[in-house]
Design goal:
7-stranded mixed beta sheet; 11 helices; 7 strands; globular
């Protein structure tokens, strides 16, 4: 029976195999200082926001809020937004952007996925945008459900890779993918929660090449120095489907999941 499978353990084992090391808050603090904009007008942000159902009286918890990409886009339409992040630099950026946008209904919460959430308010809506590669997904889902009255909205990386799966497999590179969205779906199913899901698709990081040479150069930059044999392999792949190759191959996909806690 599928409900007897320990997906929580399988998730943790998969994460360990990926070799992922959590970044300290200082890394994100440094990145925040260079962010002139919260990115609320990006294609990704627009696709996320249009899927969220809101009422003017709602309160929103934005987990892993960063500089406010989603939370600040939602703030004009709700009563209150709480931005939760473990990076004080990101929270500073969040509040600076909120001030510039004349939003007075945004409040920061410095906290991580792994820390206790006693001070985190229960909100009507919780959003988790590109911030769901956590150490313990089972515990994270418990926290999300406990702090949400109406609905959770989450995006999670499909296939667990930011780099092209096709190209990694073509080059025979080891699989260092993160646990993908299927773990989340199955763990919710085991809780008798049945999320809705669709996909946000973005161009591959290899998209936009105007020539075979430029494409191979992009792959070299993203996958590390290429051998002569690997360059020949890429050349053959490019020549078999040049228009597809110019698009960077398959798109980067985010699974957009939403559910009502039980």
């Amino acid at each position: 029976m599928i409900k007897d499978i320990d997906f929580a353990r399988l998730y943790r084992e998969h994460l360990a195999r990926s070799g992922r090391k959590a970044k300290p808050a200082s890394v994100w603090d440094a990145k925040a200082a260079a962010m002139a904009s919260p990115g609320t007008d990006s294609d990704y942000a627009r696709e996320f926001v249009r899927r969220v159902q809101l009422h003017a009286s709602d309160t929103v918890l934005d987990v892993g809020c960063g500089p406010g990409t989603i939370g600040l886009a939602l703030a004009p339409h709700v009563q209150q937004v709480y931005g939760l992040d473990y990076s004080s630099g990101m929270l500073t950026a969040l509040m600076e952007h909120a001030k510039r946008l004349e939003l007075n209904n945004v409040a920061p919460i410095e906290c991580s996925w792994d820390a206790p959430w006693e001070q985190v308010p229960v909100c009507d809506i919780t959003v988790v945008s590109r911030a769901s590669i956590v150490n313990d997904m089972d515990r994270a889902l418990t926290k999300l459900n406990a702090h949400t009255r109406k609905r959770v909205y989450m995006t999670h990386l499909v296939g667990g890779r930011f780099q092209s799966r096709e190209i990694a497999e073509l080059l025979g590179r080891p699989d260092t993918s993160f646990p993908d969205h299927m773990y989340v779906l199955n763990m919710l199913y085991q809780r008798n929660i049945y999320p809705t899901m669709d996909y946000i698709e973005l161009p591959s990081g290899l998209a936009g090449s105007r020539s075979e040479a430029e494409f191979i150069e992009k792959v070299d930059t993203r996958f590390g120095p290429l051998s002569t044999a690997e360059k020949h392999t890429l050349s053959r792949w490019y020549q078999q489907q040049p228009e597809y190759a110019k698009q960077g191959g398959e798109p980067l996909r985010w699974a957009f999941m939403s559910w009502q806690p039980n």
